[in-house]
Amino acid sequence: MFEKGHTKIGGRKKGTPNKVTLIRADDLLLQLGINPIQKLIEIAESDEASLDQKINCYKEIAKYTYPRLKLQELWVSPPENSAPTVIELVAGTGSST
Fold first, then answer.
1. Residue 84 is assigned to a structural domain of this protein
2. Domain boundaries, position 45
3. No. of H helices and E strands in the chain?
């Protein structure tokens, strides 16, 4: 039952834009001729940007240009009936032949 003053559980966080708001933002960017990715590239390539700003710009650009790689587990089972490999280390004489 709802009680006034209880803490919020679940749902969208306050201030999260809904789908209609996001579509309006995209339309506005198109009308103004603004490409956010292009702007990030311009900032990253400018001489005035600090190294941290450049890195952050490129990190953001990478999110939209490269897929995120997932961890791949590799299991290698030893071949059957294989004998162990023995490696012997021999001290050199100091001269080459």
1. no
2. 35-68
3. 3, 0
Give start and end residues of each alpha helix (H) in the chain: 19-32, 36-45, 51-65
Give yes or no for residue 1 having a pLDDT over 70.
Answer: no
CB 57 within 8 A of CB 40: yes
pTM over 0.70: no
* 22-76: pLDDT as tens digits: 678 778 888 888 888 899 999 999 999 999 999 999 999 998 888 888 888 888 8
Tokens representing 60 are 């953001």
Sole residue written with tokens 């490999």: 85
In a domain, 48, yes or no: yes
87 falls within a domain: no
Tell whether 27 is covered by a domain.
Answer: no
Main-chain dihedrals φ then ψ at residue 36, nearest 5 degrees: -55, -40
| Domains: count for the chain | 1
Cα–Cα distances (Å) from 16 to 22, 74, 87, 92, in that order, read 10, 40, 62, 70
